[in-house]
Design goal:
With about 140 residues, the chain is of the alpha+beta class. It has one domain. The protein has a 4-stranded antiparallel β-sheet, with helices on one face. The protein has a two-stranded antiparallel ribbon with strand order 1-2. It is elongated. The termini are far apart. The relative contact order is 0.13. InterPro entries: RNHCP. It holds the Pfam family RNHCP. This is RNHCP domain-containing protein.
């Protein structure tokens, strides 16, 4: 059943109140994605590569006509300590936040979390000079 048929077959809000237990193959990495192991009834991204598809305007509505690939560009920690992935649509640029799933690739999650530290917005060799300008000693021991 394609997205267009799903829009016709199900009423508004269907996905908010019903589990998404369909099996699918990730269009990015080819991983067979199953519901078991997600720790949630609503899977919205591949646990291997963490990519998703832009199918919702609002969570669960399946109303988006974009259909672009949603790439994981960052992670953040919610007030309750739960991690979430920030996805950006490669086609339209929309940003969304999605809870991580229990079976998400931990190495991929950590590499996304570490990316700002591995590519700082300034040259690392300037850290002493920058620290001195801020009033610190600036010495790396």
């Amino acid at each position: 059943m394609n997205r267009k048929n799903k829009k016709i077959a199900y009423t508004d809000g269907y996905y908010k109140n019903h589990a998404c237990d369909s099996v699918f193959t990730c269009k990015i990495c080819g991983w067979l994605v199953v519901q078991e192991g997600a720790g949630s009834n609503h899977r919205n991204h591949c646990p291997n590569c963490l990519n998703s598809l832009h199918v919702d305007d609002e969570p669960g509505d399946r109303e988006s006509d974009c259909g672009g690939y949603m790439e994981p560009i960052g992670v953040w920690v919610r007030k309750n300590g739960e991690w979430a992935i920030i996805h950006r649509c490669k086609q339209c640029g929309k940003l969304v936040s999605n809870r991580i799933a229990a079976d998400d690739n931990p190495m991929k999650l950590m590499s996304i979390a570490m990316k700002p530290l591995t590519f700082p917005p300034f040259p690392l060799e300037k850290i002493e000079e920058l620290t001195n300008l801020m009033g610190g000693e600036g010495r790396i021991k």
